[in-house]
Design a protein that fits this description.
Elements (H helix, E strand, L loop, with lengths): L5 E6 L3 H15 L5 E3 L4 H7 L5 H10 L2 E6 L13 H8 L4 E8 L12 E8 L9 E5 L5 E5 L5 H20 L6 E7 L7 H15 L6 E7 H10 L6 E4 L1 H13 L10 E3 L4 E3 L18 H13 L3 H16 L14 H13 L1
Parallel strand pairs: 1-2, 1-3, 3-12, 5-10, 8-9, 8-10
Antiparallel strand pairs: 4-5, 4-11, 6-7, 11-12
Helix pairs in contact: 1-9, 1-11, 5-6, 7-8, 9-10, 10-11
Bound molecules: nicotinamide-adenine-dinucleotide and manganese (II) ion.
The site of manganese (II) ion has 2 residues, from α8.
Length: about 350
């Protein structure tokens, strides 16, 4: 067999606690899997002058099929020469889709009923306002006025919708109902050119796929989409959105999960995939041994699923579910009193049972 080589990039803070936890899980489900330790982050920047060393990118490109990224600390004030390695990695490796599932049987709706949620946000990762073309001008009164360019291309809109549609079809196939719902998020009542192009391209992708009857497609304005996420989280299934809307929606959706420490994501490109817990480096708890490893472990599961190891990914999900059901959790989860190591060992034990 030829197991995929995975780059492990802990980054800063609790990245150094949750990535070793995820490593134990990878080594348990795929014994002998080649893992390479790689540097990036603020500490790396302070040591070497580069937040993302070229050697890290080169090893990822030349030797790895996938990676698992922890979190990095970003300075609040602008530091000369520093730019976020995660944003750079998404660009360098063309990781155009950010896929963020949020599953929580205990999620509440706005009426206080425990309705649960099982949804996934598919965020375009390469354009929109993140092309970072800002400029400062002076208005007629001599005051500053700032502009930003928002780029929405047919190509990026098409490939992100194709990714979301594939996911919607997989979810439909795995359900007894045989159906799923794909929601296209936009604001084309105001931005008819940019968001209009996104929405029309999404519709065209659906039509080009033969309008599969298993998937119902709808669209929703981004502001009312946020409302709906909290009002009726159980009415949401697969959501596809341009970069900025997707960024905001996916953090909002993470709130439904109960703790940031539970929410995984995957950055997906044509030839590379990078798992990444949604949380940051959590300096307030770093080094205390209480970081929740579940988001990183679930991200490892998503990574394996995207690399074709669906059974292993499912085993990881089930083991995590079992451990959480038994109430073994870190303190960020209500009632949790376990350490990072306790939770990780419990998941390893559940995998070996
Ligand atoms: P954060 O996600 O690091 O922490 C927010 C809160 O959630 C904190 O109270 C933290 O203790 C808690 N938390 C987060 N993950 C947890 C886990 N696994 N287990 C238990 N508790 C957890 O966000 P922040 O405090 O806004 O940012 C801290 C640093 O992280 C900043 O430097 C920021 O730039 C960076 N950050 C990085 C990423 C990334 O690398 N993708 C994402 C967000 C923030
Ligand atoms: Mn964000």
């Amino acid at each position: 067999s030829s197991l995929p080589t995975i780059g492990l990039i802990p980054g800063d803070g609790i990245g150094h606690e949750v990535i070793p936890a995820a490593r134990r899980i990878l080594e348990t489900v795929l014994p002998g899997i080649p893992l390479v330790d790689l540097d990036a982050g603020f500490a790396t920047f302070e040591r070497t002058g580069k937040a993302l060393p070229p050697s890290t990118v080169q090893v990822l490109r030349d030797q790895c099929q996938g990676a698992l990224f922890g979190a990095v600390s970003s300075p609040i004030h602008k530091v000369a020469g520093y730019s976020s390695p995660i944003v750079q990695l998404r660009k360098e490796l063309d990781l155009y889709a950010n896929v963020r599932p949020v599953v929580n049987k205990k999620a509440f709706n706005a009426s206080g009923e425990q309705v649960g949620c099982d949804l996934v946000i598919v965020r375009e990762n390469t354009e929109c306002l993140y092309v970072k073309q800002e400029r400062l001008e002076t208005d007629a009164n001599g005051e500053s006025i700032a502009f930003a360019t928002r780029q929405i291309s047919q190509r990026a809109s098409r490939r992100i919708t194709e990714t979301a549609l594939r996911l919607a079809q997989q979810r439909a196939a795995s359900r007894s109902s045989g159906t799923s719902l794909l929601t296209v998020v936009h604001k084309s009542n105001v931005l008819s050119v940019t968001d209009g192009l996104f929405r029309e391209t999404a519709r065209a992708v659906f039509a080009a796929a033969g309008s599969p009857s298993a998937v119902k497609i709808e669209d929703q304005l981004v502001d009312s989409m946020v409302y709906r996420l909290f009002r009726a989280p159980d009415s949401v299934d697969v959501v596809v959105a341009p970069n900025l809307y997707g960024d905001i929606l996916s953090d909002a959706a993470a709130a439904l999960a109960g703790s940031l420490g539970l929410v995984p994501s995957a950055n997906v490109g044509p030839s590379f995939v990078m798992g990444e817990p949604v949380h940051g480096s959590a300096p307030d708890i770093a080094g205390k041994g209480v970081a929740n490893p579940v988001a990183a472990i679930r991200s490892a599961g998503m990574l394996l699923a995207h690399l074709g190891y669906a059974d292993e990914a499912q085993r990881i999900d089930r083991a995590v579910e079992e451990v959480m059901t038994r109430g073994i959790a870190t303190p960020d989860v209500p009632g949790g009193r376990a350490s990072t190591n306790d939770v990780t060992s419990a998941v390893v034990a559940a995998l070996q049972a």
